[in-house]
Specification:
Blueprint (H helix, E strand, L loop, with lengths): L1 H7 L28 E4 L14 H4 L8 H12 L9 H10 L18 E7 L5 H14 L6 E7 L6 H7 L9 H14 L2
Parallel strand pairs: 1-2, 2-3
């Protein structure tokens, strides 16, 4: 997500990132966009502090990443970052690191750099509610004609569940329907 955000709204203190012309693009207006971005179990609220996200607690015993682990990871990710109140440059960069801190409309320019996004959440995942809230916010914030946002939820899936299917070597014809949908989404974007 940080790469897409930086391409759409460059951080002034960093070199800008131009999206390369895609050889797979069939129309000139899409030539400078990524054809798709896939996010599997994305970690948006790095300190897991949103009280609207009940799945942090309700799914803590079913997921491979319980709340205390998420919070410890988040503290490690944010360690050493200066107080944004005393450093305006830090305040400007924090939404790139932690979506919970993003101001309203922060994601509105994503359609400039990507045509479609698929976001996966496991139904038994601690991050589920946060992922679903982010997906809904993204749909409301961006122009749906310019950016297709597709949410997929595996009812019994855990954090990174589709990847685990491939790690254990499940044949493609035996994958769960959500993982098959993800594979097909990739095929649609890379098959010419």
């Amino acid at each position: 997500m940080q790469i897409l955000l930086h391409a759409a709204n460059p951080i002034p203190t960093l070199p800008s990132l131009a999206v390369p012309l895609s050889p797979l693009s069939l129309s000139p207006h899409k030539g400078r966009k990524f054809l798709g971005a896939f996010m599997m179990s994305p970690y948006f609220d790095v300190l897991a502090r949103n009280p609207a996200c009940k799945s942090y607690v309700t799914n803590g015993n079913s997921d491979i990443l319980p709340l205390h682990t998420l919070q410890n990871f988040g503290k490690g990710n944010m360690a050493g970052i200066p107080d944004p109140a005393s450093n305006p440059d830090v305040a400007q960069v924090l939404p790139y690191l932690d979506a919970y801190l993003a101001p309203e409309g922060f994601y509105a320019d994503l359609p400039k750099v990507v045509s479609s996004m698929m976001i996966y959440a496991g139904g038994a995942e601690s991050l589920r509610d946060d992922i679903l809230l982010f997906g809904e916010m993204l749909k409301k914030t961006t122009d749906r004609k310019e950016l297709e946002v597709r949410m997929v939820v595996d009812e019994f899936g855990v954090h990174l569940d589709p990847m685990l299917d491939f790690f254990v070597g499940i044949p493609e014809d035996e994958l769960v329907p959500v993982t098959k949908e993800i594979v097909n989404w990739f095929r649609e974007r890379v098959t010419v």
